[in-house]
TrEMBL record:
UniProt cross-references to Pfam families, sorted A to Z: HIG_1_N
Transmembrane parts of this sequence: 6-31, 43-61
The HIG1 domain, residue ranges: 1-65
Name assigned to this protein: HIG1 domain-containing protein
InterPro entries named in the record: Hypoxia_induced_domain
Keyword field: Membrane, Transmembrane, Transmembrane helix
């Protein structure tokens, strides 16, 4: 799997979502401005969308589409 470039892209997308989520949770804990926190969570949702689409594409391609 580690030799598969598409798998690596999917893994990076999932890691990006996790990173954004942790950053957002840390911001809430630190009491960051609500407007900035909202933007971070909007970015997380967009990153999640991309990650889910990549995961579905990966499964579709690997199953023989």
């Amino acid at each position: 799997m580690l030799n598969d470039p598409l798998f690596i892209i999917v893994a990076l997308a999932v890691a990006a979502v996790a990173g954004i989520l942790l950053y957002g949770i840390g911001g809430f804990a630190a009491g960051v401005d609500g407007k900035k926190a909202n933007k971070v969570m909007q970015l997380r949702i967009l990153a999640q969308l991309v990650a889910v689409v990549l995961i579905l594409g990966y499964v579709y391609i690997r199953r023989g589409g």
